[in-house]
Amino acid sequence: MPQTMNARSLLIACVISFLANAHSSAAQAAELSLLAAMTQTVEQRGISEFLVVARESGWEPPAIRSAFWVSEMPKDKPEAIKIEEAKRAFGKAVSKKIDAVCMDVFTKGGAAERKHQADLLLSFAEWVKAPHSYGNLLLFTRAENLAATPVAYLVADVQVPLADIEPFFKRFTSAETHADIRGDVLNEEARRKLVPKLAGNAEQREDALAKVWSEGYRKARQWCEKRGIKGEIGASIRPEIDPELRVFCDDDGILGGIPRTTTARWDFKILNSVCVFGTGTNTLHQVQRFALFREKLGYFPDQVPSWWNERDKVFSRTAAAFEGPWQPFKKEFGNAYSSAASVMELLRANRLYDEETKLVLGNAYKD
User: Fold this and answer.
1) How far apart are CA 297 and CA 10, in angstroms?
2) Across-strand partners of 250?
3) Among 277, 291, 288, 339, which Cα is nearest to 141's?
4) Which one of 47, 98, 197, 330 is least enclosed by Cβ atoms within 10 Å?
């Protein structure tokens, strides 16, 4: 009787194991199929139509880890690795399509088109940033950086009520939240709690991130020095260093002339610049000051004061026109007129873009 029960128990265990493996394989196949469908949709139909399909289909954004994170996965789990690689392929396809949106932002105008551009980029940012993972951080930050430009064009159009523009500003990620997300990403990439819960203002949060990285990098440097390893703590050191310190070995030394764009650097490990320093730009802050200027004055002055001339090396023509009318607000709001003038001049020249967009547009025009 005991032998019969043991045999029966063994059979039941085998059946359960078989069913569990079959269920796992089916789930992995389904996830790969979904990721393939998402990638194909964004490649063939672009960001705008992708969002429509994603909403209708109930697609959730995948957590897109870095190539470094994937390379550290156990090699005895090929299906899990395949899924992570498929997520990264989707992310890179999205990055290329955001680059394509750049051309629309700088070739198509009109208030309706600008509203559509801003809404599209911010809607995608809101969708993709839910998982606090490396690729998601790159993509939503890229989309928000680019969205600042059409919002600025709307501010410059005094026919567009500020009440219609204010909701766009509220949709951008705050500096504090952005720092928190970067801390979460660094923890995930390190596979342990490197960054504690951040607190304080944006600058204090960023200082805390820098402190964590500096301490980790110092330990990596000490590890190398004890073993007589000299030079940069980068990609070449990563295979041999203590696994817990690999997260601090970035690819800076092998990037060379590779453009500083999300698409071009998608497969590289640049955690320090992405998580510690962030990939945001000052464009949004400048546009916010631009909106403040319009809110207080209600218009954009064009009358140049009599003291200004073309040889003035301090004030541009626009800054000189803005400076006088701004005086009643200067004590409370500082020199916002200067930021406003700079934004207006860049808009008139169709050159209000961050460095990444500048590189993307430059390469497009070369092609």
Assistant:
1) 82
2) 234
3) 277
4) 197
Distance CA 96, CA 51 (A): 15
Cα 262 to its chain centre, rounded Å, is 8
The number of beta carbons lying within 10 Å of the beta carbon of residue 6 is 10
Partners of 234 in beta bridges: 250
CA 165 – CA 160 distance, rounded (Å): 8
**Which of 60, 63, 97 has its CA nearest to residue 83?**
63
Q: Where are the domains of the chain?
A: 23-173, 200-272, 283-366
Query: What does the DSSP assignment read for 61-92?
Result: PP----HHHHHTS-TT-HHHHHHHHHHHHHHH
pLDDT in tens, 135-167: 999 999 999 999 999 999 999 999 999 999 999
Tens digit of each residue's pLDDT (9 = 90 or more) over 212-240: 999 999 999 999 999 998 888 888 889 88
